[in-house]
Amino acid sequence: MAAASSPSPGDLPPRITVAQALALPAVQQGLPVVVAGERNLDRPIRWVHAGEVSYIASVLLGGELLLTTGMGIGRRPAEQRRFVQELDEAGAAALCVELGGALDDLPPALVREAEQRGLPLVAFRRDVRFIPVTEAIHTELVNSRYAVLQRCDEIHRRLTEVVLDGEGIPEVLRVLAETLATPVVLEGARGRVLAHAVPAGDARGEDALDAWASTRGRDAAGGAPWRAGIAAPVPLGRGAPGRLVVLPVTDPLDELARLVLDRAAGLVALSLQRSRQEEELLARERGSFLLSLSGGRIATAAARRQAELIGFAPASGLLLGLAAETAAPVEPAEWSLVLRDAQVELEGRGAAALVGQREHPGQLLALVALHEQAERDATAALAAAALRTAATRRIGGAELVVAVGRAAGWDAIGSELRFAAEGAASAGPLPAAAWYDARTLELQRLLWRWREDRELAALVQRRLGPLVAHDRRRRHQLLPTLEALCAHGGHKAETARALHLNRQALYHRLDRIEQLLGADLSDAQELLTLHLAVEARRYVERD
Question: What sequence ranges are listed for the domain PucR C-terminal helix-turn-helix (predicted)?
């Protein structure tokens, strides 16, 4: 029989195994019996050949199931062993021999060599027509290919809808990870993580960045080759391209993943070109890490490792956590430039730093490396100035509120970041300062967290309502006097100096406040309650 023409290896994917082919009705007509290589029946078949020449292996491209009557295998044991050897080296999937014509039984040398090499060797005990067998297997291959392409088209349409809806690259990666049930990483041109996504609720996703690191040659010793994953280039504008990487955490990826990845890479490239999102993605990825760190969702060892993977590898383990935000409306693209400039500004001043978006544009978190505790205040001032410079350059005169936590190691820096974030949020209504020490904002932070509580609003109204109503009707305000008295711990001399009043004028105002509120300002408990109400009013009544 003449050999059939074979397509190139990339034309059809391996979607049917030797075992599946043997189970087809057309193949079963020949009463197939596996006599060697049974352990490799899961080999994929790419194509089917039929041939009767001794040099048949030379025309194979790999992955073929060879059908023969045995005329070309040779009569001597050495020829038979060489026949199997050449098939194995050519990457044949299996050898199927029809008995009853050229051979009544399979030669022992042929069987032994096939078993030794693990090449599936099948004997047809009954005459079988090779054309129906070939057609049956090729039909399965074509149907399988069509099903893969159809599924690929469905996924591509879904990803395209995400892009057209303006959801952006993070959502594209999320849908891709969910669809393929495996982590996905977008790399920048310099090998940095721009963004990544993992399937929802999949515990394996926690190791996504570690799996990604192994694709770059780290921790790859002893790993299976398929663990390197598959990647597609993503143009990032000028210069070298990035990569979209699909990571097989536990199992190899199939042909569908390869086809979908190629299409997804094109959509990601298009989104990047349209929105120039690389800097925004970097900010989000860093911000996601910092948010997870502040929320206590990353273990100490993992935090240090993940920080290194996104470009932050401080020489010491002493860190300073900062948070900043502005109440001014900021576009995402503008804010990503603020974050980038802040990172560059800090590094330009010799401070190793990691700056990322917190939850929304206008909010940020940052880590700055310290050499020793004594540097804390100086570094805080330097970092606050760098952040403010970056904000002024990109968004003009919008006021940036900066709060700084305590210096800490990796084991405690998460909670310090959280305190700094809540401190920045709670310091908004306070008098302007270059930066706020989160340690001095405990009361404000607590009141900010309770700002939606009705009881707190009721307290403010009960204790300060008459005074607020008075100030709305009169030109001379009394609430600032009470605020100053509370700020100075009830000390009247210090309050008078702060307000630039003589004592008689201050006493007159305090008497009037006591009348309006029905309060005794000399009572420590009363003053404490009023002080709490004064501070709480900043958060429950935003005039």
Answer: 478-536
